[in-house]
Amino acid sequence: MYRNQRIAYELKKQIAKILQHNLDDIRINKFSTITDIVISKDFTYAKIFIILSYKEEKLKKKKNSFFYLNKATEYIRYLLKEKIKLRKIPKIKFFLDSSFNKGKNINTILDNLKIKKI
Fold this sequence. Notes:
This protein has five helices and three strands, in the order H-E-E-H-H-H-E-H. The chain has helices at about 1-20, 55-60, 60-70, 75-85, 100-115; strands spanning about 35-40, 45-50, 90-95. The protein has a three-stranded mixed β-sheet.
């Protein structure tokens, strides 16, 4: 398990650098935050969870951002191959991390319960 965590951490760091410095597509937000990476046991697949910027969330551009981000995965894997020494670079797919919004909704519900109780 420890090796899996080290590889996930290194992938997270390198993919964040690639998104900021190597992708010149204006349809892809360079400042998306990678929150988590889940790698399969055999290191063939990786799910990357990201939070989009407030502007993209507000303008409902989520589908477009993820479409173009997932279209660039082969290029990102190519760049990862140069930066990380692994026998096999996992196939990557980006997903929206909605845990922040869910947490905010739960907080709102709890706050409303406190107000009604008082």
